[in-house]
Here is the input.
Amino acid sequence: MADCIRVPLLLLLMCILSYVHPIRGDNAYNNVIIKPGGNAENLQNQAGGPGAAAGNPGPADRSPVAGASPPRRRSAGWKLAEEAVCRDDLTRLCPKHSWNNNLAVLECLQDKKEETEIAADCNHLLWNYKLNLTTDPKFESVAVEVCKSTIAEDIHSQGEVIACLEKGLVREAEEQPGAHAIHDDCKKAIMRVAELSSDDFHLDRYLYFSCRDDRERFCENTPAGEGRVYKCLFNHKFEEAMSERCREALTTRQKLIAQDYKVSYSLAKACKADLRKYRCSMDTNMPRAREARLSYLLLCLESAVHRGRVVSGECQGEMLDYRRMLMEDFSLSPEIVLHCRSEIEAHCSGLHRKGRTLHCLMRVGRGDMGAIDTLCQKALQTLIQEADPGADYRIDRALNEACESVIQTACKHIRNGDPMILSCLMEHLYTEKMVEDCEHRLLELQYFIARDWKLDPILYKKCQGDASRLCHTHGWNETNDSIPPGAVFSCLYRHAYRSVEQGRRLSRDCKVEVQRILHQRALDVKLDPELQRRCMTDLGKWCSEKTEAGQELECLQDHMEDLVTSCRDVVGNLTELESEDIQIEALLMRACEPVIQAHCHEVADNQIDTGDLMECLVQNKHQKEMNEKCAVGVTHFQLIQIKDFRFSYKFKMACKEDVLKLCPNIKKKVDVVICLSTTVRNDTLQDAKEQRVSVKCRKQLRVEELEMSEDIRLDPDLYDSCKQDINRLCQNVAFGNAQVTECLKENKRQLTQRCHQRVFKLQEVEMMDPELDYQLMRVCKHMIRRFCTEADGKNVLQCLKQNKNSELMDPKCKQMITKRQITQNTDYRLNPVLRKSCKADIPKFCQSILNKATGDSELEGQVISCLKLKYADQRLSPDCEDQIRVILQESALDYRLDPQLQIHCTQEISRLCPEEAAAQEQTGQVEECLKVNLLKIKQEGCKKVQKLPQVLSSSRADPFVSPLVSSEMSCLMEALQDKRVRLQPECKKRLQDRIDMWSYAAKIAPAEGFSDLAMQVMTSPSKNYILAVIGLGVALLFLMGLLCGRITKRVTQELKDR
Here is the structure.
């Protein structure tokens, strides 16, 4: 064993107690003890030089100890208690029964000197004594004998035994191949020697000789004593200039510290009082017991800090150093070395320094580089808890170095080392300030912090009371099998979003922190342990190609119906939570920052579990501040909401009782909205005394209906029915702003039957409630404010129609009103006012047309044409007559408002009146053109269709119909016949043309019945001729009747005669 350089007497003292003492008795122990003095100097020279030269401990190294006995070797046992320089301290500090045992005296004085002063001479005597223990070759034979199972080779080099034993102890702890079992007493002796050499690195001879040059290079100005040189060398362990031999020796000592914190003099001294105060060292008789491990010390004291207890600053400083040490070098954790060996060899070899191996293992644990063994995952989680980097990011050197630039720019307002630094970094994840290396290191660490709520110190501080009260958790470093650490946060957020009626809500401070964690988890699906665990299969099946930030959760939401039950439940719960607090979607909030600041800053600042922010974003989705990312995100959330009404928080809270009462067993939001809307509409039409849907639900229902009208995709039935038509007719039309729906309306004649039926039903609903007509409300928003502020929502379109020709009317709004008028005139069912006013007249006069009608297709204006005919005869009820008059006036101004004219006269209009038809402003030009060119119309359908003569004749019946005549027609006609009245030539010409056209219209207009026919005959200039022809015809028929009657009679007589 070539690495062994020193021989520890103290080790043998412990081993002799258990092995040699039963054979040799007490004298055997003292016979091998060397009294400090001149021999020590010789031994130092043999080992490589005097103590003063080696470590420069002070003048006492270079002269005999004052007051000590002269150098001599005792045949009988020499005792420290006999030395005069230590007698006073020994009498004052150590019990008398321990004086006969040098080891007991050494331990007593070593421990007490931390609490009280010991005479300088005595202190120096103890130092020389410990040095002699680690340099005397006479104990090698005893060490080989006692620890022969550990030492496989003969030891001939001076002082290498203890180094071999320490490495053997480490190999056994790590269960390395070929490791030898070491007896517990021998382990205790090894650890005790390491502990006694912890204050001065000169006392660890192997490390001293391995690191002499490195000490001069890195720690030249660091004085020896109190473990300062050790700490200095630890801090420079991974420097490029550090020799490999020194780094190996330092690592061995760090591993011993990990097994027993007392091997670190500075840590044991700084934290001694705190360990006693918080009862962290319950079993001091076994140095390698659980309470002695560095991990236990750290967990115990960290628990006290997290509970708000006072731990001395000196102790916390030491803890910080050793937590950083654990994060820098994975090999200091035996569990990591033991359980992660295959992962290290496969993925992380060659990354030993500065915590890179540990972060590589974290990346494997995240699933970014393949599967990881369960025990390795558990060992990583335990190490993260021990090091607790969440409390101070500087503990994680790899993270600190990777994120230094981000911290300096994005988080410079936060105090260095504050736990909020990690939260700040998470807030800037996926932003322009984040760098790639920092992003990776941060997500690797947060993956493990997210799996134990205690590892976020701010969350633990604010929520420990709530967690204990609601989730039955224990202390910071205590485990509870009934509720694992990963389940505590789920418990907290379930209580965070409970209603007042449900009770047992979180405190305000805790709820804020729970929301902060939820915001962070929304950035990466792997930061949500429950989601990742339950949805691992579905993520691989449906979302393997979704690698961008936030895409995985969106993918799961898109495939909600396809997910396994357990995954669907957790995705559903998370989506329901987002509907209440959309700020959880951190990426969406960043994308929507401009529109939030411009239009939603009040609800964003004051939002408390109401869902107002998302509602505001939806309402302002088409503002100029809205960017594409935000619009896509908001629309996606709207599309997800239609899958389940619970995903719309405000709707759920307002209508929960109504849904249970009126629409049970309905889950999809769109179906629930239709169900409730139908109920409201039926109650309204039937004039029910009391609405079955509550007021608050009706109010929220209106919001949901308006949102659904904005994008055809939010109405799945309509979208599915018209998908083929959209691809064919509206493929270049963008979704949103109801543009696709409007495109389908404009191409209604070309739609497939199924789509046409759905669009007709949609139009029927919109005409009954114009507020649901998104395009109308959007285009005419300002005109509604100007003209219709006092109008009821359902009368908005009627109000706009009445003000359509106002000089203040916006042209775009006017055009939109015209479109809606055209739609209304295609079918009386699309005109609620006309339908109500003529509900008795329509079945009375137009029943034959109704018999041919279907429930979901237009009548193309046939019923309205029927009513126009009866209007000319003045046979309609007053209310119906008023509505038909309005329609006649409107269609006289715009030929497009007459569906029959559109159908039968399209070609003639294109041929005879192209310029008039192309005019943007229709003021009756086309009708006037057709009247002027009435004799030129060749198409029989247009010439004989009832509509044209009706319009022309109706103009005579109602002087207000014709747009080019501004006074009553009868008055003008009288003025035309009166020679005393002078009319303008143009007016006179128009009136004469109108008389001629009426005459022609009367000629080609068919009579409706016998009375109409008789009237036409009696008023005809050829009345006598017509009556003569009719009389002649009757006479001829009479004569023929007589003749036919005689022939019949003769035949009958002849038959009788026979």
Observations:
- The CA atoms of residues 582 and 614 lie 6 Å apart.
- The radius of gyration is 50 Å.
- Residues 829-893 form one domain.
